[in-house]
Design brief:
OB fold (Dihydrolipoamide Acetyltransferase, E2P), EC 5.6.2.4, ATP-binding, 21 strands, 41% helix, alpha/beta, Rossmann fold, seven-stranded parallel β-sheet
Amino acid sequence: MSEELKVWRERFRRPLLFAARKDFALLPKVKDLEATLRKLLSEAPETLEEGLRSLLEEKLGGLEGLPLEEKKARISELLALTEDLREAPSEDFPPYPDPEDYERLREELRTPVQYVKGVGPKLAARLATRGIHTVEDLLYFLPRAYEDRRRIIPIRELRAGQRAVVQGEVVLSGPVQFKRRRVYEALISDGTGVLALKWFHFREGLLKEIFRPGTRVIVSGEVSRFGGRFEIVHPEIENPEDPALDLHVGRILPVYPAIEGVSPKVLRRIVREAVEGYAPYLASFIPPEILRRRGLLPLSEALKRLHFPPEDADLEALNRERSVYHRSLAFDEFFFLELALGLRRSRLARAPGIAFRTEGRLLRDFLAKLPFRLTRAQERALKEILRDMAKPYPMNRLLQGDVGCGKTVVAFLAALTAIENGYQVALMAPTEILAEQHYTGFRELCGLAGVEAALLTGGLPPSRKREVKQALARGHLQMIIGTHALFQEDVEFKRLGLVIIDEQHRFGVLQRAALREKARGVSPDTLVMTATPIPRTLALTLYGDLEVSLIDEMPAGRKPVKTLLFQARERAKAYALVREEIRKGHRAYVVLPLIEESEKLDLLSATEWAEKLQKEVFPDLRVGLLHGRLSPLEKERVMRAFKRGDLDILVSTTVIEVGVDVPEATVMVIEHAERFGLSQLHQLRGRVGRSERQSYCLLIAHEVSPGSEAWRRLRVLTETTDGFRIAEEDLRIRGPGEFLGTRQHGYLEFRRADMIRDYDVLLAAREEAFQLLEEDPDLSRPEHRILRKILAERWAERLHLSEVA
């Protein structure tokens, strides 16, 4: 990045950083932010990449008039976009590849790696241990860092701690005795000083041959200081006469992840063979005008420069994985994902749907019977949902909101609309206990509305399953609530009109589609609910085919939950607070990560701890136990006892993470809090604070000490109840797969792209992909048909894109 651009970037970000300080506490006091930023943008240097300039211009649009939460999100986006600034690369573009060559190009890239010059079967077996089986795998085996070996440094200029390349003449060499061990030492001089080279593991004959006095050598490695002299331990050695010298010195050197049995020099050599022989086959079929507009490079060019950067490349950007070459690869991956999501979205939007009448008596009467008024956010979300339901094509909407914000009531109102129109409603939850909790809650609402509902899970007795399935097929049941059992082959609906899916990210995309396909001849409306605050970064990818409704307001009278953090030795203080709350007539949860004691992990187990609490800590109170291995009837019995007040304390595993609603519970104790993700802790915290009573979440950390990274991570929960801030932090720490529990689905796997680091690239890719689909909705133009092939190869199965397969 040029100095001029750096200076402008700091000026542009300064008002944004001020507005975001102290969790946006100062934002209401900031005046004319949009006008200030627009003026600064107009002063941006000409070297600012044009695509980014346009994106910033777009994100500034209407900033002042946004609601507070949306304004916070937009400021966060602007900060993410300007964390690094892009300057268009100067490299010329290669000719656009012929789409007819696609299969031939793919075949070349599938060449087994053993056929790369210098590899062979033995080395191929070692590469396979790192997942490198084909030429394409080797091309995508990217450096983990870069080392500056562009300049040979005089010995007198060396500094301890730096990595350096030194050339000199061998003065003497041989083994020396050093504190009971033999060390091989060589001294080299370049006329400005003497440098010692040492080996603690060595083959004496080989080193004696290389370091004969008078021989000139080039060495590189980390410089240290010992006994008043500079030294390098186990340096890399080069022969100045080696014809392949330019691969190892005089350049920005790629440093690859270690592969056992393969030296860095050998790895660089075979990667160069692969790059020179096969990189041209890695053709980029993204229209070149898009890449030029965004200041990016075609795939093959970006990969070549990632492996062997040009001499003037930005070393800092390379090491931070923010170079134009890194961004070009990320853009390629994001572009095809967003194209797939956009294609799926447009296909669903054009499918035959149901135009529901949304001004029904059933909805009106039910709202009149509710003992509370909907919040403004609930009313806004309901309005958006009903507007979609009235259209003659399928609704695909995400209803997102923090725990306890009232999503269930809004979803039920949508269900009533479908039922009044003569259609059936299916609600699918990821676990049996959550399905049962929904059934308990919805049954009360159904009773108020005079609607028939039933539960269908794998744990039901066979006779009850048959009964429910028959009633569903004949249309006697208006609402069914269940788990993945709902999309089994023998489940039939007479007239399915609305599918509600809770905690969608726990299902595979194909499972979601399988339930929708239970509606014959017409696509039902789909409402996806999540209490997991999904950062915008992820919402763009995971829910790229959905419109989003956000409930960002809690019901009146709710007090924020107070969160306190304790070390294990301070547990007595935490449980004293539990006893005090129970004395007031309230109840408490105690959550642990394990059901039974583990020999491998020194963790408290739920069964062991429930017994200890009952016998030693609270012998005068009633302690119950709930976990996933209990039968549905046992779970129901325990939960009923807790809700009725027959139990004071419920010890549980994370089965109570979502869906459990006991307003009298005011304390949530979480043992081994460091074992949970931040978003999961936030979900668990949401089980309390569901009334006007003050509630508490007590985090007990066993394996972390104050000041450590893990402790600081847990402190985030004591500082904020903003689920989106917590989710962003969780996403940054754990990555999307762990954050969402989708690792097992293989859904969000990228070779290079990272949704957090490359957020600005993700936004740009989405914008370009959706614009392309506006011009060619089916990708039917001759020049775009190749894009369908690539989509089929990369995303067809995972995104249920049957029309491109």
